From TrEMBL:
It is found in: Cytoplasm. Signal peptide: none annotated. ATP binds at residues 32-39. Homodimer. Belongs to the SMC family. It comes from Gymnodinialimonas ceratoperidinii. Contains large globular domains required for ATP hydrolysis at each terminus and a third globular domain forming a flexible hinge near the middle of the molecule. These domains are separated by coiled-coil structures. Required for chromosome condensation and partitioning. The chain holds residues 1 to 183 of 1151 of the full protein. This is Chromosome partition protein Smc.
Length: 183
């Protein structure tokens, strides 16, 4: 599974549609303070199913919608699309016939989030399960936030164990067990 393209539209400071092609190898994002580097990483985390506003540095999820600037009005929705190359067939079962996986998440003021997976309407759970099984979810230790290293060093053993379990790719199993216990 390889991320090949990220598109932002109305997400935080990216008010106009912005396409980012993610090439093979290492990608660096550089720019002055406040230019939107962290917003880019948050967009990636968000389209992968992040549901905690605090992880988006907001108090409510609608805070990810472009909130206006001196010369631009606020927008009513934000949308992020992620294109994934699956020619290596490393995506979980269910995607075995798909060379490419497209995920779109859109949030509209007062209407919450909606997801599409390869053009079909899906639930947040379907998206988070896709990444949980691929052990690269929105909460994945593979995505390291500013300040997260020191949090990990200072974490209690239980929280540190969760990070290791996520890295080991078993958090999807935990999610399924939790759901089975609720039934
Ligand atoms: P640093 O180098 O300091 O880490 P950065 O490049 O990571 O900076 P970000 O934190 O990604 O910068 O971007 C911050 C900018 O995004 C601020 O100018 C802030 O006003 C803007 N911003 C955040 N949320 C919104 C929003 N909902 N609407 C409009 N602008 C927003
Ligand atoms: Mg930053």
């Amino acid at each position: 599974m390889r991320f090949t393209k990220l598109r932002l539209n109305g997400f935080k400071s990216f008010v106009d549609p912005t396409d980012l092609v993610i090439a093979d190898g290492l990608t660096g994002v550089v720019g002055p303070n406040g230019c939107g580097k962290s917003n880019l990483l948050e967009a990636l985390r968000w389209v992968m199913g992040e549901n905690r506003p605090t992880a988006m540095r907001g108090s409510g999820m609608e805070d990810v919608i472009f909130g206006g600037a001196a010369t631009r009005n606020a927008r009513n929705f934000a949308e992020v699309s992620l294109q994934i190359d699956n020619t290596d067939r490393l995506a979980p079962a269910g995607f075995n016939d798909e060379d490419q996986i497209d995920i779109i998440r859109r949030i509209t003021r007062d209407a919450g989030s909606a997801y599409k997976l390869n053009g079909k309407d899906v639930r947040a759970r379907d998206v988070s399960m896709l990444f949980a099984d691929a052990s690269t979810g929105a909460h994945s230790p593979a995505l390291v936030r500013q300040g997260q290293i020191s949090e990990l060093i200072n974490a209690r053993p239980k929280a540190r164990r969760r990070v290791l379990e996520e890295a080991a790719g078993i958090s999807g199993l935990y999610q399924r067990r939790h759901e089975a216990e609720l039934k």
